Amino acid sequence: MRLLRSPRLATVLLVVIYICAFHTTSAIDIPLEVLGHINIVQLPTITAQSPSTLIAFPFDESFPVICEAKGNPEPEFRWTKNDQEFDPFLDPRLMKEENSGTFVIPNNGNLTEYQGTYRCYASNKLGIAISKEIEFIVPNVPKFPKETLDPVVVEEGQPFTLKCDPPNGIPPLQIYWMTINLQHIEQDQRVSVGLNGDLYFSHAVEKDSRRDYCCFASFPRIRTIVQKTAMSVIVKTSRSNAILERKPSLLTPPGGKSEIQLVKGEDLNLECIAEGFPTPQVEWKKMGHKFPSKVRFENHGKLVIVPRAEQEDSGNYMCKAKNPLGEVQHTFTVTVEEPPEWVFEPESQLSMIGSDVHIKCSASGIPQPTTTWRVNGGPLVIGDTIVIHNAQVSDSAVYQCEASNRHGTILSNANIMIMSKYISDEGEEYSVVERKGVTMHCKQRAVDLNDSPESVHGPRFTVHENGSLKIYNVERGDTGQYTCLAKNTEGSSAINAMLYVKVVAPEDQRILIGTTAQLSCLADPADLIPAEKPFSFRKSIPRLHVSTDRYFVENGVFHIMNVSHSDQGVYRCVAKTPADQDVASALLMVLDVPDAPENLVLSDRKGRNVTLKWVPGDDHNSSTTEFIIEYEESHWEPSNWKELLRVPGNRNSAELRLNGNVDYCFRVSAVNAVGTGRPSEATERYKTPPEAPDRNPENIRIEGHLPHEMDIKWEPLLPIEHNGPSLEYKVSYRRQDVEEDWKEHTVKRHSFVVRNTPTFVPYEIKIQAKNRQGFGPEPKLVTGYSGEDFPSAAPDNVAVKVMNSSVVKVSWTRVHKDKLHGHLGGYRISWWRLRSLVDSKKSPGDKHTLTVPGDKNHATVPSLTPFSEYSLIVMTFNGRGNGPGSHPVNFKTPEGVPEKNHDFRVTDVQRHTVSLAWKPPLEPNGILIGYLLKYQLINDTEEVGPLQTVDISKPETTTWILRDLEPLSKYKFYLCSCTAVGCGPDVSDECTTTLETRISTKGWFIGLMCAIALLTLIVLIACFVNRNKGGKYSVKEKEDLHPDVESQGMNDDTFCEYSDNDEKPLKGSQHSLSREIKAVESGDSLVDYGDEDAQFNEDGSFIGEYAGRKEKRASAEIKATIQTPA
């Protein structure tokens, strides 16, 4: 500020700048140290306060209730609690601070008396500022009530709900349903936890019976988990072993409609849990809209979550629960509400006497917030805007606007300062780069350029309502002094400001070697000489020629490709105009890894200690951060460099501590921010004298693979750590449990075996390194055990408790440690199936083993076959192996539900019938009492037919015919086997009934056709035989002796007629029943029965007897009955 002449003047000018800029800020913020110098008063302003909600968490030591404010004079503080005066200084338990409104509530007693709503008031003689309301909450420890809960008794297939009713507490609340053993209750389509914490069952099944349903309520913010009394559920099994199917209904929410209100930004959670059998499926949709992509479906589709709800998430949502028997639906009307937000937040203002002051306050929210005004903390009016006409100094105050609805409250303080006159003096200096914009601040509109009576005007100049002057695309000609004239009824004042315009000059750069550097130099083309290059670059003094491929100028930017060390230097940009020229310079520094150190020297050689010195190389504009010292030795790993030491980058020497009997040489490399540089040249060689070892072996391991041996192994010293020739190890050991001397052995390898040791006893071991120069330091003591042997005893008191049809609990008495002979590994349970209680002929099953690690005395054996007899033994094991097995324990598993039937198939399909066949399950898991056959129509539509059930009570049945089916329809069939416990899993098959009955495939029809064909063949054979054997008597003569009009008249119509006039046997006639019967007595034909009531029995055989005309014939003398062959 080149016009300042005194500290007093500088302070006043600073105040002027604040006042002129005040219109664009939201609060008067004049630094108090400035006001202290010139004693300008300032309204109080709240600068810090506690959040609206302050929770007294039990693990916090104290709870500060914050209220800080500034102003001139310094503000005084007072508090209200629940709208009543509250003085923290009157309570000796509270901690207070001087010149502050903050007080601290210590967590050392009953905090409940401090619970309430607090508000802070900061006041001085100009006004009162108030804070937001601060609610101090002391949470109670949530607890479930102590209660005795009756068991929940429910029929199988019926729905039920277990109530949680969690206690109130600080959110968030998390609900878990677990057993007493903290095993989570499995959730699926049938079982789920609701948003209210209740556990819902769509329908009960037998496995739901248990006595340890526990509801756990977790309150993470207060680090508390509480447990409700365990609940018991008893599921009564249906006598028919069939669950009655029913259409869905909703367990939650109740009714068909509900309304949901939530605050914008919260997660929208909608839930539908239904009951029914089969288990209903839940579908969701937003009516009239698609679900947004952010929506998540959880809890097996029963819960829809819309995270961070917005206004567009309001609307109607519908859930629909469906199963084959029907559906039910529920509609949610969702309204997303909003807490208050400022539309127009009241702003602090600095106004002149006599002006009109408008203080506007407007807030939005759902529901619409209520706006309340206060002045200096006292109530004023209700409305959006306060207007102060012809403002006076007495109107200076703190105005508070508070907007609230049921979702919250917002408060804003506006400091209104009425000034009697301007404080004015010389203004400030503004510097701007060409072609940029600048804003110079002033309160009034009267703005002149360079003391000219003409106002500033033009397209590049804009005067704002608050008097600020904005200049766009600044030019060099805009440099000069600007004056702002301020007037009011108290007088006038002028504020001067100086504007300087600068040319864009190239900037100093640090560039990595091998990359591209860009130096910018911009000037106004209108001021340049057309005949010459407008600008040029020079490096140092000589002119830089830019004709090479690595250098070129484009749009005022000088490019250097593939920067090298030679490009480093000072670059000058020369910009020429017709009147003069301007020069700007920039330093280009090239960054690279450091050069290798030089002049390495070994000094102060004192045995195994030596000093290494070096001269650092060029760091190439990036400071060296450290040096890396490497070594190479000629005996063990020649030409292999290894890191020895690192020292800081500000040092050029290092003290080296070396190993003995090693021929060394060294080199050094430097490190900076760019990377690690090349290593230096190697030093001359330096061989250290031999010495005793510096350390002993580490990682000592004691192992026992055999009962009377102990293997000792360790990690050997590195070759460079030998410190001398002939390295050996002294192994010392002794028993720990008895008094005995150390036994010592010296070995060259890194292992040793102690033989003839007792089995599994503790030993103390130490390993010490030595060479020709002597022993290493005193070794550390290590404890281990000799070799293990197999355990010699088996667990006693092995007992088996049957838990259910496939799980048993096994317990035993632990084996005494003296019988283990080693480290206990645990126990092993072996079991095998002796026989099935259904079919005792089945051979025993394979042996199974369960390993129980650690010192336990019980375990659960799963996956047993129901209704079987098993045998079981328990043994212990250690590192050597298994001990002897216990005495076998036999046990039987109860009945269970059968496995799936195999070979379930459709054997025949007709128009209205379907034949089914199956085989019993391979493992009935009990005594079969029958089968449950179900079927339903499943035509290719969304709707399916009702599920029909057939209870087959005879277990020996393996076929069934379903009748009265719809023709040309697709059906699905389900079959499961049942025991007294229940029915097993279903197997299924499908088929489509035909349009016409296919007789040709009927078994009875095929059999009938075969029988008829056989009968026809037999009759033909009989006729042929009788014809060949009937020549010994003449039917012709018989007819002549006994003429019969009817028989004679039949001639050509008779079955088995005469073929000609010769005497030949009658076709189809029967043999004589007795050789003594005369020829005339055997002439009857089947024609004799043609006019009688002939009958056939069920198998097709002929039944006839002599009657009517037959009685007149001689054949009536025949007593034997003659039958026709079937």
UniProtKB/TrEMBL annotation:
GO terms for molecular function: cell-cell adhesion mediator activity. The gene is chl1b. Residues 596-691, 696-789, 794-896, 900-997 form the Fibronectin type-III domain. The chain crosses the membrane at residues 1004-1025. The lineage of its organism: Eukaryota, Metazoa, Chordata, Craniata, Vertebrata. GO terms for biological process: axon guidance; brain development. InterPro entries: FN3_dom, FN3_sf, Ig-like_dom, Ig-like_dom_sf, Ig-like_fold, Ig_I-set, Ig_sub, Ig_sub2. Belongs to the immunoglobulin superfamily. L1/neurofascin/NgCAM family. It holds the Pfam family fn3. Residues 681-700 have a biased composition (Basic and acidic residues). PANTHER family: NEURAL CELL ADHESION MOLECULE L1-LIKE PROTEIN ISOFORM X1, PROTEIN SIDEKICK. It is a single-pass type I membrane protein. The keyword Methyltransferase does not apply. Residues 1-27 form the signal peptide. May interact with L1CAM. May interact with ITGB1/ITGA1 heterodimer and ITGB1/ITGA2 heterodimer as well as with ANK3. PROSITE patterns: FN3, IG_LIKE. SUPFAM superfamilies: Fibronectin type III, Immunoglobulin. It is found in: Cell membrane; Secreted, Extracellular space, Extracellular matrix. Residues 44-135, 139-232, 248-335, 340-417 form the Ig-like domain. This is Neural cell adhesion molecule L1-like protein. Residues 678-700 are annotated as: Disordered. It comes from the Eukaryota. Keywords: Cell adhesion, Cell membrane, Disulfide bond, Extracellular matrix, Glycoprotein, Immunoglobulin domain, Membrane, Repeat, Secreted, Signal, Transmembrane, Transmembrane helix. GO terms for cellular component: axon; plasma membrane.
